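Lab notebook, bench 4. The sequencing result for the construct came back, and we need a structural model before the next group meeting so we can plan mutations. Quick request posted to the team channel:

Model the 3D structure of this chain.
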Amino acid sequence: MRLLTCVLVALIMVVGTASAASPVHTEKGDKAMVFTFHGLGELGLSGYGDDWGLGLRYYLSDMNALRAGLLFGMSSFTEKGIAEGEADLEDSESAFGIDLNYERHLGAPCASVSPYIGGGIGYWSWSGEFENIDLASRDNPKITEDESGFYFQGIAGFEWGFTDCMTLGGEYQLGWASGSWKQEYDPVEGETQTWDEEEFSFMGFHTASVFLSVYW
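Done. Here's the predicted structure in token form:
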């Protein structure tokens, strides 16, 4: 039932905006803020690529654009100990990442649709620090985790101008990614030991979330 409702909502949106379709802005100097949707079940709008992401597109010349993304965020959580002498639970995380994609827009029979091809690179880094995370005893040592990696990709996608100065779009990505992850702990204050360490790589297709671009 939920799926049927989502399909009906999507059809209503398409029918309601078809008559208002507008040409996609692909001229030198055009620029847009880029957002993504993660799952049509909730229609949840997020930052570019992630809740902490910021995305921008800028046309260097007619039909040639750069799309850049910046990921940055920090969070912390503390649950105070209630009993006398009980340690606090502490959790802090931070993330950073950048990506840069080149889009070569192509001609199309419909002015409201602008297909493109291109490529891009990216880097991400994440770290977390957790103290006394055992809810039962609250006496675990401090645990730290770090992950980082980079990727290269080829892209093929489109923008659809469903109204003036706003587009929706999707993208296929074929790329290669490589990264590493490490988990360390401090059994004694000032002494750090590696608990687990991994390296990974991936090559294949990926489908990007639905893009919402707002031109100004």
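Residues 1-12 have pLDDT under 50 and may be disordered.
Will bring this to the meeting.
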